Amino acid sequence: MLQATERSGETLVEMRNAGVRRAGRWLVRGVDLAVRRGEIVTLIGPNGSGKSTTVKTAIGVIAPDEGEVRRAPGLKVGYVPQKVTVDWTLPLSVERLMRLTGPLPRAEVAAALEAVGIPHLAAAEVQTLSGGEFQRALLARALVRKPDLLVLDEPVQGVDFSGEIALYQLIRDIRERTGCGILLISHDLHVVMAETDTVICLNGHVCCRGTPESVLRSPEYAQLFGARAGETLAIYNHHHDHTHLADGRVRLADGTIAERCGHDHDHAGERHDAR
Amino acid sequence: MLDDFFTRAMVAGIGLALTAGPLGCFVVWRRMAYFGDTMAHSALLGVALAFLFQINLMAGVFIVATLASLALLFLQSRGSLSTDALLGILSHSTLALGLVMVAFMSWIRIDLMGFLFGDILAVSRLDIAMIYGGGALVLAVLAWLWRPLLAATVNTEIAEAEGLRPERARFVFMLLMAAVIAIAMKIVGILLITSLLIIPAAAGRRFAATPEGMAVAAALAGVLAVAGGLSASLNFDTPSGPSIVVVALILFLLSLLRLPARQAGREAGRTP
């Protein structure tokens, strides 16, 4: 069933028909997945589709209510959760955060911060970091442990677009350099998919799975994310259905002439919504 | 040296402050102030039960405070009422139960004010031995537990995923809180124990750059508060517990004065 079976490497974690039930409701059910050494597996799905729950079950933060989860003996996990808030009263520098779950040589800490692009923030208190900086610090913390399995729950949230591409590049480099397995949760389909071996599409259960290309083409995927989700950069496309005439009027798609078009060209309306 | 009641109180109080400071940092970081208060309030029930079954007072308080925290964890996991409401119910009902039981036990004379607000006259050599023995044990366990507890404080899921067993750390932490409440009762009194955990830690926050530094700063602030408070208590004939808390409050307010200079330095330090 898995597309990456030809890749060499032991199975780091394997879920069989796993399900998690809370307050009488199944958050996820019937999940089969495996991550092998050197493999990148990406989970995608809408909000509330059980992505985080699945990942937490895979690494043992949550016990499954049905099915089974097997982890390789002595598996070393590096985990970046979706949301981490550090209370203001806790004096915690980035450097100290790096040593949160185990002691480390100074040089390795510096190298990890360098790799994620925040070497200048080593002495900064974590509460003073921006969302993107903190995300990078958490990623550095997870990978400095040299984990067998790196688990990243939306690792690029709060990171700007160029930083996002750089971080995905970094994640790919980590895989190639250390050979660890990577289990990733993502919203950003078009960026992630190129680096991924297996994509698993979740919506309370596994909708579809396979290589990025095959998932992109599958009808289940189109149904879940809408027909246009497969288009690259679909979100950024401006859907032009009208023509602006020289006199300021507008010819609409059906050929009629109107005084103005439906959308706001300087996007002031969007900014208004964002507030 | 320990013949003098004031010296005994001072030695006991300093031992308590050294223990309460580091533990109090975790109470502040984990936002468990009200939780600690609830455990402390249950101490009076522990006192009443200790008199009833004729066991050591500190042992009685330790057992009841632990049971109160376990009861809270159990009720929390049931998820029927908010933690806030559960804390309120447990806190005041255990205190009220204790007061009612003490009132019923007319065959023994109990100095209620001493238990509620602390009594420096009551500190015996045995108490000092308990405070230092218990305190050393608490600090040793805390040092052993430091990394998992700190990791769980930052993020339980990271701690769990990376094999640090945060649930165990949290349970042991509850036991440590119960132990400190038991040994603190005579010095500051049941109603004010939490303040000795929280106020020195809060005062130490401004002077610390690391979690470990804050633990040391909290211990020192606690020692200053005990020394100042007990001296004031002797001079002005005020109750020992409230006097210590007032001095701790003054230290906390003084620590706030350093804020502007410190924050400016931090901003400057951040520029690459």
Automatic annotation (TrEMBL), chain A:
Domain ABC transporter: 13-228
Record GO terms (molecular function): ATP binding
Similarity comment: family membership: Belongs to the ABC transporter superfamily.
Keywords: ATP-binding, Cell membrane, Ion transport, Membrane, Nucleotide-binding, Translocase, Transport, Zinc, Zinc transport
Taxonomic lineage of the native organism: Bacteria, Pseudomonadati, Pseudomonadota, Alphaproteobacteria, Hyphomicrobiales
Matching SUPFAM superfamilies: P-loop containing nucleoside triphosphate hydrolases
Record's protein name: ATP-binding cassette domain-containing protein
Annotated Pfam families: ABC_tran
Annotated coiled-coil segments of the chain: none
Domain of life of the native organism: Bacteria
Transmembrane segments: none
PROSITE patterns per record: ABC_TRANSPORTER_1 (PS00211), ABC_TRANSPORTER_2 (PS50893)
Annotated InterPro entries: AAA+_ATPase, ABC_transporter-like_ATP-bd, ABC_transporter-like_CS, Metal_Ion_Import_ABC, P-loop_NTPase
From TrEMBL, chain B:
Localization (cell): Cell membrane
Transmembrane segments annotated in the record for this chain: 6-29, 41-74, 86-108, 129-146, 171-202, 214-234, 240-257
Membrane topology term: Multi-pass membrane protein
Entries under Gene3D superfamilies matching the protein: ABC transporter involved in vitamin B12 uptake, BtuC (1.10.3470.10)
Keywords on record: Cell membrane, Ion transport, Membrane, Transmembrane, Transmembrane helix, Transport, Zinc, Zinc transport
Highest taxon listed in the record's lineage: Bacteria
Primary site of residence: membrane
Matching SUPFAM superfamilies: ABC transporter involved in vitamin B12 uptake, BtuC
InterPro entries named in the record: ABC_BtuC-like (IPR037294), ABC_TroCD (IPR001626)
Family: Belongs to the ABC-3 integral membrane protein family.
Task performed by this protein: Involved in the high-affinity zinc uptake transport system.
Name this protein carries in UniProt: High-affinity zinc uptake system membrane protein ZnuB
Organism per entry: Chelativorans intermedius
Organism taxonomic ancestry: Bacteria, Pseudomonadati, Pseudomonadota, Alphaproteobacteria, Hyphomicrobiales
